[in-house]
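Practice problem 4.
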């Protein structure tokens, strides 16, 4: 557990590499597979493909303190052979590299994360023998992360918990085009419109009376011949 500093951001190169276990044990933030410039601990497995993915992600961090690489071993920690050579090759690309040994008892527990969360709560010599090597490696991992300086309170890098959340703003209402009056139509301003409370009179159609009889539209006006 890292105290007095920002909680470390832990992210894995893929699923199933032990990211959640490391995040719970360090009391950090589990970022899943979201490795970015805010990641403090990158987790991968001790396999050729997983180590290759971690090496490819190392280029994302650029200058400045780099994160620590936590390698989850599927068996015994390799001390020779191709995997050992790859570990030596990838180590300079990170601030530090810590191999976490496999804990076989966690495959038998219903909730191994509960045990992982309390690994720093008691002395190493009081833990089961199968956990001691893992806890000692976990302590080296915590010390390496703190030594990078990435967890300082004055670190200008945005933390995941402090990152602003951008709310979805409604799309702007498109400006209406200028209304063009049709031919013979007059647009009346609001001040010139007739009030709805004012009684309106029906319009009467007028037409010059013909000399030989009544107007042909006189019936529409209610006039009698």
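Answer key:
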């Amino acid at each position: 557990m890292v105290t007095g500093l920002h909680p470390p951001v832990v992210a894995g190169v893929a699923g199933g590499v032990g990211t959640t276990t490391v995040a719970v044990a360090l009391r950090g933030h589990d970022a899943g597979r979201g490795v970015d410039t805010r990641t403090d601990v990158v987790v991968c497995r001790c396999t050729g493909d997983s180590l290759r993915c971690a090496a490819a992600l190392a280029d994302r961090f650029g200058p400045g303190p780099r994160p620590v690489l936590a390698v989850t071993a599927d068996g015994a920690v390799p001390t020779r052979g191709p995997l050992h050579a790859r570990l030596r090759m990838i180590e300079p690309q990170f601030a530090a590299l810590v191999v976490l040994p496999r804990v076989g008892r966690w495959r038998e527990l219903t909730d191994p994360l509960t045990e992982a969360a309390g690994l720093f709560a008691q002395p190493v010599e009081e833990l089961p023998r199968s956990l001691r090597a893992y806890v000692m490696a976990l302590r080296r991992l915590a010390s390496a992360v703190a030594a990078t300086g990435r967890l300082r309170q004055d670190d200008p890098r945005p933390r995941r918990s402090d990152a602003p959340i951008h709310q979805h703003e409604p799309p702007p209402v498109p400006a209406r085009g200028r209304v063009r009056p049709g031919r013979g139509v007059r647009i009346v301003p609001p001040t010139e419109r007739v009030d709805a409370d004012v009684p309106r009179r029906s319009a009467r159609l007028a037409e010059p009376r013909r000399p030989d009889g009544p107007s042909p539209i006189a019936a529409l006006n209610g006039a009698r011949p």
